[in-house]
Amino acid sequence: MLKIVWLYWKSMNIYGDYGNILALEKQLKIHGLKYQIIRYDIGDKFPKDADIVIGGGGQDSSQNKIQDDLMAIAPKLIELAKKGVPMLMICGMYQLFGNYFETSNGEKIKGLNILEGVKTVAGDERLIGNIVVKDDRFGDVVGYENHSGQTYLSGKVKPFGKVKNGCGNNMTGSSEGAIYKNIIGTYLHGPILPKNPNVTDYLIKAALDNKYGTYDFIELNNDIELNANKHMVELLKKSIK
Ligand code: GLN
Q: Could you tell me the distance, in angstroms and rounded to a whole number, from the CA of residue 229 to the centre of ligand 1?
């Protein structure tokens, strides 16, 4: 049984991030794997163990709202991260898996620093639009970004990918997101998992390997999803300069 913790499912869940849970459920069902979705929000009891942790985006005010609770569960999340539990953190939660997010009021919202040294500072302009990120492992990853935060990586983490179309971590560089152990932090709403089956499979495979040692994961035929992904990459090539 794979336990999936859906972190701050009420407080941090915008631009269709719920689709990530739906995509995971769908793939797990097709694989015939048993799973349980554990919804976690402020004040809830944090589950004893977890095999996958998923977190979404949110407004600055929501990031502020979850701050104390996030610090309270920090030791548990850090322990899971150390154990190699795969996690996917989108936008607002990505920022809070880093060191801090400094809002436009100059207020610093402290992060978990699991993505060590990753810092985010709100800019004057929002970075909004469709985005394509290239990564050796995942190929072309498509999504949608909408954030004021400009994120800067440290040498301790690797970027999730390289931006082909769109902005990514910040307006000046070409990196997008961050990856450390099995933890992916990314600005890609979209939602990312239904649009990118390679990322969905990666999370499931990593969870199985982590829990059972090496697990004989049979790749599904993802042709329909991959064709949709390809189509979006082509469309964006034409529409974004
Ligand atoms: N509040 C953050 C920002 O604008 C995160 C936004 C989001 O999660 N989409 O940078």
A: 24
At position 73, the amino acid (one-letter code) is: I
CA–centroid distance, 38 to ligand 1, in Å, is 24
- HSE on the CB side for 186, CA within 13 Å? 31
Mutate to test the pocket of ligand 1, among 14, 17, 60 (most ligand atoms within 8 A of CB): 60
What one-letter code names the amino acid at 37?
Answer: I
Per residue in 165-198, pLDDT tens? 999 999 999 999 999 999 999 999 999 999 999 9
35-45 pLDDT tens trace: 999 999 999 99
Q: Residue 82 is which amino acid?
A: K
Place of tokens 């064709």: 227
| Helix 18-31 × helix 197-212 angle, to 10° | 60
Distance CA 223, CA 41 (A): 35
3-state DSSP assignment of residue 186: strand
